[in-house]
Every structure is written in structure tokens, then in C-alpha cells.
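User: For a reading group we're discussing how well predicted structures match intuition. Take Dihydrolipoamide acetyltransferase component of pyruvate dehydrogenase complex. Before you show the prediction, I'll give you the sequence so everyone sees exactly what went in.
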Amino acid sequence: MAIYELRFPELGEGLHEGRIEKWIVKPGDVVKEDDPIAEVENDKSMVELPSPIDGKVVAINVEAGTTVVVGDLILTFEVEGAAAESSVRETEQAVAEPVQASTQVAPAADATVHAAAIQATGVTAQQSSSSQEILAAPSVRKFARESGVFLGNVIPTGANGKILRADVERFLAGGDHEKGESAEAALIDPSHATEAAQIASVASDSVTSRQGAALEERVPLTTIRKLIAQAMVRSKHTAPHVTVLDEVDVTELVQLREELKPLAQERGTKITYLPFIVKALVAAIRRYPALNATLDEDRQELVLKKEYHIGIATDTERGLLVPVVRHADQKNMWIIAQEISELAARGRAGKLGPNEMKGSTISITNIGSAGGLFFTPIINYPEVAILGVGRITEKPVIKQGQIVPAHVMALSLSFDHRIIDGVLGQQTMNEIKRLLENPRLLLMEV
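Assistant: Thanks. Here is the predicted 3D structure of Dihydrolipoamide acetyltransferase component of pyruvate dehydrogenase complex, as C-alpha cells, for the group to look at:
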């Protein structure tokens, strides 16, 4: 018999970390190759991690709820000798690059004192970066170098103090100023390092009152929330957002939906306003194709998409997910309604696959279901526009000189001002309004 150490594998292209949500096995269990051993939250979806080998579980090396990176030891098996030797070689090859790219990171306080020592000897921080043992993958080091960022000033959030690309991006956005200021103070007086370490230690604990009751609670960010935060920051700092706000009289749409409800029930589906909005959006961006595009920044070219894949932002307990209705221009209202319902259900159950949340060309986000009206939605980068849908309210409007009650929907269209001017954005909004005000026109859109 031999020992086989399972290290966390890369579960998909570019997926370098995950959170062990639940262990399916326990020490003493005998498993076969491909048997599920854990549930892992990764890339906005929950996946089962299969066993790579036949064997007996000897030890679980990380607790459920822990975020791990590729190459971390997570499970130990007892296996037959020949099989173990072969599998160990394969595993070592699979994790060689991330492991070799890492060195042991020094604690924050030690790094600050080291910076002070460097200043005292006249050596610059950039010159000494190779000797400070900073843990980061080669791709992250390259990104930091190209961005002009010294990794010693970046606060790591990865396992074992590893600096992630998201950490560098947060630093560029101004999120790590406190560490930079502490390091600068330490360059003047090394005693600041001890003070900074004490402050950090106190801040890491929950604040308590004199009676000992906790006044705050610290909750680790989930993998999904980290990814959402990273995507939002990237979009907001990359694309200059402009939002146009408007109202649309959807009285006829409300009536048409009521007429279609019995037919939808016969088909075993639910008809909401979203399928109509999807069809209206597709028709509008067909007329104004600049909104169904991406910007190739390296070549300075606008890439106009000839396919219409609509992302539908879906609120779940695990965060905001954006499943995609593909080829929406080729589907009728019933099919779109069914797909939206199925995608939303799988999203809330954590069963969406990564491919079901990729490839959208423009997105829709709905705050109306939560009672919201107008808002400024953030573009689902690298798309260049997103349509925000507010609630429908009944209010008085003027029609043919008469004040009459009407159902009015709030709409918000955000777009990348590098590509889309305000007039074009409003023209697109006008087309969406025209179709929603006359929903039977949508029946002509196949």
C-alpha cells in the first residue's frame, strides 16, 4: 500500500481557486475513480470534485468552507502501490507550474520591517523585490510588472498569503492604500511595523462592547462574491458608463400577457414580461448593431456581433448570476419564456454549468421584481450595454388630450460611452419603447 496526496486541480480554464463547500467522503471511506468526493464552489457554479483514483480516504486536509488554490493539498488516500506511483507522477505534473511559481510569503509585519531595513541600506524596494519572497503566479507577476505595481505593497487574499490578479486590480483601483501608507511609515521609523501589526491584529477581531457582546461580524467573501466584485470593478473602471432613463406605457402589454396566461399554463410554463423585453431588445439592437458588440482595445476595433445571446441577470442566495438565452433572435416567445424559467431555476439551485453563463452579447437586469424603479446598471463587461427593467406602476398619463390611467414601466439603459453616444443610446431606448407599447409588433419578430 502507498499514500497518495490529492492536490486541488484546475477545474476549468483560468479557474485557479475554489471553495470546498462540503465533503462527501470521510476518513475510512473507500472510493472508486470518478466517485464524487466534494462539492466545490467555483466560477459561479457548484461542481462535484471527482476522485482521480481508487483508494481509501486516510485524511481530509482542509475543512469544509475553506478556499483553496490549485496545488493545495486537500485529501490523502491509501492506494495500491503501482497505481499510487503512477497517479502521484500525474498529479505532480498537473500542479508543477503553480507550485514552482510560488515561494513562502513573509508575514505583513516582517515585510514592513524588511522594507525599513532596505531603506536604511539604501536599496530600493524595486531592487529588492526578488528577495522579499512574495507568493504570486508568473502571470500575476507579469500583470503587476506591466501595470507598474510593486507586489510588496499589495495585500494578498489567496490561500497561504498568495497574491491574486484581483488583488493587483484592487490595488490599482485604490483599495490597498492602508498597506501602502503603513509601509511608507515603516520606511521612516521601523517601530511603526510593530504598531501596524498590533492594529491589524485588533482589527481582525470582532469589535465587542464593555459587556462583551459582539458589535460586528466578519463573514469571508465567497468565491462567487469575489468574482462578482472583480467583474464590477473591471467594468466600472474600464468602460465610462452613461445611463438614459425613460418610461414606457405598457398597458397593452399587460393586457396581452393576461390573455396569454391560460395558454402558457397549458404549455406548462409561466409567461412573464421578460420574454417580451428580450424580443424588444433583440429587435432594437438589430436596428442599432453598435450595442450588440465588444471593443477590441488592442486593435482599436469595434467587433459587431452577428449573434444575439441575451444574458439574464438572476438573483440567487449565492449571488448575482447571468445565465444566457442563446440565439434569442431565432426563438419565439414561448421558447424564450421556458428557457428563462429553466435557467433561473437551475441558477437558484446552483446547478448552472459555466458554459451556460458565458458568451452573452448584451444583458438585461430586472430590479422591478424587488420593487425598484430607475437605477444605473453596471455593464456586463466586455459587452457595451445593459438594459435595466424597473417595476410597472399604475399612474395617470395623457392620451389624445385626456388624462387616463395607464401601466407604466421604468427602463434604464447603460452603455459604454467610448462606443455609444447619448443620441444613439436614446434612439435604442425609443425603439424598445415603441415595441413594448405595441407588443403585437413583437409577434412579427422571429
